[in-house]
C-alpha cells in the first residue's frame, strides 16, 4: 500500500509543502520574542518527564509522553503574560468529529476522537496568500492507478451525512474555532503505536475534518472556494519525536481534481532530544554513560511553542 500522507493528500484534495509556513517559521526565528529564554525550562521538563516523575527505574512511554505534553503546554501558557489573548484558549479532550465529503464519485467520512483539541476565541489567519491559493489550480494531484486510493479504507453504510464539530462547539461556546490538534502516540509497545508516516496521515485527515466541519458550519454545505480559508494545526509525538503540521482549507469543492486545492505544510521527524539515560551505565566500575538527557534540540521546542503562539503573535 502506498504511504499514508500521499493517500491523505488525494482524499482531501491537498497540495503538500515541506517545512513550516513562513508565518510560523518567522516566530521560530524571531529573537525579539524571547523563545530562547524558555529553553532551560524545556530541558527541565524533559528531565522531569523522563527521569524524575516516577518511582520506576525507567518510566513507560504511556506515562512520560502525556507528562511531557502537559509540561510543554504549561511553558506555552507562561507566554500569556506577554500576550494576554493567549488566555482565550481552551483544551478539549476526547472531542468527537464527523465530516463528510464527496471525492470523484466516492462518499467519504472522517469521524472519531480527534486527539486533544485546543480551541480559540478567534481563528488562525490564512497562511497562504490569495496568489498562492490560486496557483494551486496548476498543481496536479498524484493518482495511484491501477490501485484505488480508497483501497484500505473501511467501508460502512452511511445513514446520515454528518458534519459535526462535536461537543466542543455548541451554540454560544466562546472558544468556537479549532486551533491545534495534539496526538500523543504513547503506547508502550511499538506495534501498538502509529509509525511516523501513519501518524502524519492521521494528523492530516483530522485537521482536514475539523476544518471542513467548521467551514460547513460557517458557510453551509454548498461546495465552494472559501473567501476566508480555515486553518487548523496539528502536532503529533511519541514523547521524543515530533511531527508538525499546518493545514489550510481553501475549498470545500472536493469532487473533482480540478481547480483550487487545499494546502498542508509538514515538518517531519523532529527529535526533541536524542537520548534519555534513566540510570547510569557502568562498566568495570567506571560510568560510561551518565544518567541524564542528551542531545536536546531547542529548535524542536521552539516549533512547538511557535505553533501555540501562531494566530496571536
Automatic annotation (TrEMBL):
Key word Isomerase present: no
Assigned keywords, A-Z: Mitochondrion, Ribonucleoprotein, Ribosomal protein, Transit peptide
One Pfam family linked to the record: PDCD9
MF annotations from Gene Ontology: structural constituent of ribosome
Record GO biological process: translation
Subcellular location: Mitochondrion
Major location category of this protein: mitochondrion
The keyword Transit peptide belongs to this UniProt entry's keyword annotation: yes
Cellular component GO terms, alphabetical: mitochondrion; ribonucleoprotein complex; ribosome
Family (UniProt): Belongs to the mitochondrion-specific ribosomal protein mL37 family.
Full protein name: Large ribosomal subunit protein mL37
Protein's organism: Donacobius atricapilla
